[in-house]
Write a structure and sequence with these properties.
Helix 4 runs antiparallel to helix 5 and helix 5 packs antiparallel against helix 6. Strands 1-4-5-8-11-12-13 form a seven-stranded antiparallel β-sheet. A two-stranded antiparallel sheet has the order 2-3. 34% of the residues lie in helices and 25% in strands. It is α+β, with helices and mostly antiparallel strands and 245 residues long. The chain is globular.
């Protein structure tokens, strides 16, 4: 998927966890083979060209497209699987794949899992007795610095996803125009139980801009967010403070 994945796995029976780790890595590689829009032979590329039907693809393709349709509905179209008129579910695939890989490890008996997929993180369980997972949020305006630290204290599962221009430039598309989203934001970080949705909501909110994006995020259950504007203004949802530490 053109990015780096890192695993932090705690506890469990070593042989079972090691086998699950190998399976999770193989699963991520398979996701790249199936969903990459840069590979002409991927199922998603062939589906976009009309060479395959959804029913002829791996079952995961239908699963991802159904989740993406739900994200589009919840965001009133601000999240989209279309890019320049072509099918492109990239905006949901990485978060979904990262979350799925993390859950495979937890199901194998790992007591704590932290999986970072290109800067977006899914944590499950705990790293140790009485210790929560903590996730640093990069400051988009101060390279090497942190804008916040999110704590998973009291949560069995938590995800942190950021969309913005600091790492990849103007890559987020405004679905209304089909062109790069031009807003007052440089980054949106969303905190939610599942990375599949956190990743989608961060992308959609960025495309909306700070005012509309923050108002929309406030309506979503179990979701908190941190928004940073190009003018170095920080805006956040009402309950974010309870997740910082």
């Amino acid at each position: 998927m053109g990015t780096v994945f890192s695993f932090d796995v705690r506890g469990g029976q070593p042989a079972a966890v090691h086998a699950a780790l190998e399976d999770a890595i193989a699963g991520l590689r398979r996701v790249d083979e199936v969903f990459s829009t840069y590979r002409d032979d991927s199922q998603i590329s062939r589906l976009a060209r009309g060479e395959l039907t959804v029913g002829e693809c791996d079952p995961e393709v239908a699963e991802v497209l159904e989740l993406a349709a739900e994200a589009e509905r919840v965001s009133d179209g601000w999240f989209s699987t279309r890019y320049r008129g072509r099918l492109d579910p990239t905006g949901i695939v990485k978060g979904w794949a990262t979350e799925r890989a993390a859950r495979r490890l937890a199901e194998a008996g790992a007591v704590g899992v932290s999986l970072n997929g290109g800067g977006d993180v899914q944590v499950l369980g705990t790293p140790g007795a009485g210790r929560p997972w903590r996730v640093g949020v990069s400051d988009p305006l101060r390279p090497g610095g942190l804008a916040a630290v999110v704590s998973a204290a009291g949560a069995d599962e938590l995800a942190v996803a950021t969309s913005g221009t600091a790492e990849r430039g103007d890559h987020i598309v405004d679905p209304r125009t089909g062109r790069s989203a031009v807003t007052d934001l440089v980054a949106v970080t969303v905190v939610a139980p599942r990375l599949t949705w956190a990743d989608c909501w961060a992308t959609a909110a960025f495309a909306m801009g700070s005012r509309e994006g923050l108002a929309w995020l406030e309506t979503l259950p179990d979701v908190e967010a941190l928004l940073i504007t190009a003018g170095d203004e920080v805006r956040c949802t009402g309950g974010l403070a309870s997740r910082l530490g």
